[in-house]
Design brief:
The complex is a heterodimer of chains A (317) and B (184). Chain A has 317 residues and is an all-alpha fold. In chain A, 53% of the residues lie in helices and 0% in strands. Chain A has eleven helices and no strands. In chain A, α5 runs parallel beside α9, α5 runs parallel beside α11 and α10 packs antiparallel against α11. Chain A is rod-shaped and about 70 Å long. In chain A, 49% of the residues are buried. Chain B is mostly helical and 184 residues long. Chain B has one domain. Chain B contains nine helices and no strands. The chains are: A mainly alpha (317), B mainly alpha (184). At the A-B interface, α1, α2, α3, α4 and α7 of A face α2, α3, α4, α5 and α6 of B.
């Protein structure tokens, strides 16, 4: 089909005056009858591509968007001065947010997570490691979380979590970050769906309140310039535990796959936060496996940075 | 395809203050074109991405000033950037830049029939022969309903370059039709 020469190409181009192009692209019949078929084809594409949203999706979006618009009226001015200090910490921050949110959701939907162990292989391990490195002060993330909190408090837990997921998908700095953020967002969204339609426990008022509080608190913490990353991590971890803690009976049930690990590389290796063979160096929860010694004591690893875990970035390619 | 300048100003004000009716109205107006554009340009999950784009609109609405024409450009600037991010995220997969008319997805038997009546295969084949930039421009004109100037703003090229791209794109399509002797 494409073996025509330059000469023929030029001939063909000549049939397309500006006016003819405009007619074709606006769905009108072309003046040149030779182009009639092209005109019909383009018009059909035009028709086929334009769908109508369902009433349900319209009202869902409208309420979410209206809440966002309202919250940006009230918080926009106040949070501006502290925004966007730098992009370096945003991936870690986002991953941490997702990690915590997934953890909370997992806890609330009845999936037991061993909160105190935080060893490699434990979802919390990766979360804690990520939280240790969290940067703070990104006003954008703060705003998103505030919005998500507003949604959750209105009972729209699924939308709230989807919204938080969207926060992670703001443009990332490079391909690696983008891919990781995308995985994280996917995980969060799946978690949100499972909470929203939970078989075991439909979204209860209790869950709504807790998720809302969690998000609001995270937003507040994110906006506190005096907290360093480790302290932030510790506070959020504690909060997550107190909010989402199931009865401590079933400590060994696996949590959901950690965000950035699903889909990466080995399909049978999911759910192992510390194990990312060949993973890119800047992925947050990807500490080498086996580094932490299980933290059997009373504190999570994040409260004792460096104690047992390998130094950040050590041994990476 | 248009809300009208006066009513747009009213809708924009209401949307900024968080009125749900205004957001319903904007959603109904823009969901189709945004979704169609993203789908036609090979977004991995166009429905999802369209939702994200519209939420980005909600987030940025306080900073937007202008009329409906510039609003439409702005919406598609965001959609186009989101699409580029989406392509980057999906870059592990083989190039997904093929034009994918939403056959059977949009619903309506009418549309389905319209498409069936055309030589769908040939049309698709023809679209495949275009460059990514040509297809971006064509979709922004045809599906998003933008003018040349608006498209230029969205893709960051000069209007003259956009005109050249669309002209060449149409010529390539017509060439396929000429060569294959497709009939309706």
């Amino acid at each position: 089909m494409s073996d025509c020469g330059v000469y023929e190409d030029d001939m063909s181009i000549k049939r397309f005056s500006d006016a003819e192009v405009e007619r074709l692209l606006s769905g009108q019949a072309p003046e040149n009858p030779e182009l009639a078929l092209l005109g019909s084809a383009l018009a059909a594409v035009h028709v086929v591509e334009l769908g109508e949203p369902s009433d349900e999706s319209v009202s869902r979006f409208a309420s979410e968007a209206a809440a966002i618009a309202r919250s940006s009226v009230s918080t926009g001015a106040a949070s501006k001065p502290t925004r966007r200090r730098g992009a370096l910490t945003t991936l870690q921050e986002r991953l941490a947010i997702v990690g915590v949110a997934v953890f909370v959701l997992a806890g609330m939907s009845g999936i037991a997570v061993a909160a105190d162990a935080a060893a490699p292989g434990d979802p919390l391990y990766g979360i804690d490691r990520a939280l240790e490195r969290v940067g703070i002060n990104d006003g954008a993330a703060e705003e998103r979380l505030a919005e998500a909190g507003a949604l959750a408090s209105r009972g729209q837990v699924t939308e709230a979590m989807g919204h938080a997921a969207a926060a992670i998908e703001e443009p990332a700095d490079d391909r690696t970050s983008a891919a990781s953020a995308s995985h994280a967002a996917t995980a969060l969204r799946e978690a949100a769906v499972s909470v929203g339609s939970g078989d075991e426990e439909p979204t209860s008022e209790e869950v709504q309140v807790a998720v809302s509080a969690m998000l609001a608190e995270m937003a507040t913490l994110l906006g506190d310039p005096d907290l360093d990353g480790a302290e932030f991590g510790r506070r959020v971890s504690e909060m997550a535990r107190s909010l989402g803690r199931p009865d401590d009976s079933a400590g060994e049930a696996p949590g959901p796959d950690l965000p950035d690990e699903s889909e990466r590389g080995l399909p049978d290796d999911t759910g192992q936060p510390g194990n990312t063979p060949g993973g890119p160096p800047d992925e947050a929860p990807g500490g080498p496996p086996g580094g932490a010694d299980g933290s059997p004591g009373d504190g999570p690893p994040s409260s004792t940075p460096g104690g047992g875990g390998p130094p950040e970035g050590a041994g990476r390619p | 395809m248009s809300l009208g300048d006066e009513s747009f100003a009213r809708i924009l004000d209401a949307a900024k203050s968080g009125a749900e009716w205004a957001w319903s109205s904007l959603y109904r107006e823009y969901w189709g074109p945004v979704m169609g554009y993203l789908r036609s340009r090979g977004a991995v999950d166009p429905d999802d991405l369209a939702g994200e784009v519209l939420l980005k609109i909600a987030r940025g609405i306080q900073r937007f000033e202008g009329g409906e024409t510039s609003f439409r450009s702005w919406v598609f600037v965001i959609a186009h950037r989101s699409l580029i991010d989406d392509r980057r995220r999906a870059s592990r997969r083989p190039e997904t830049t093929e034009w994918r008319p939403g056959v059977g997805e949009v619903g309506g038997d009418v549309e389905q029939e319209a498409l069936d009546q055309l030589a769908t295969g040939e049309l698709l084949e023809a679209l495949e022969s275009l460059t990514v930039a040509q297809r971006d421009v064509l979709s922004l004109r045809l599906v998003a309903g933008l003018t040349v100037d608006q498209v230029a703003e969205v893709v960051g090229k000069r209007p003259g370059a956009v005109k050249a791209l669309q002209r060449r794109a149409l010529a390539s399509l017509q060439k396929v039709i000429d060569v294959s002797g497709v009939t309706l």
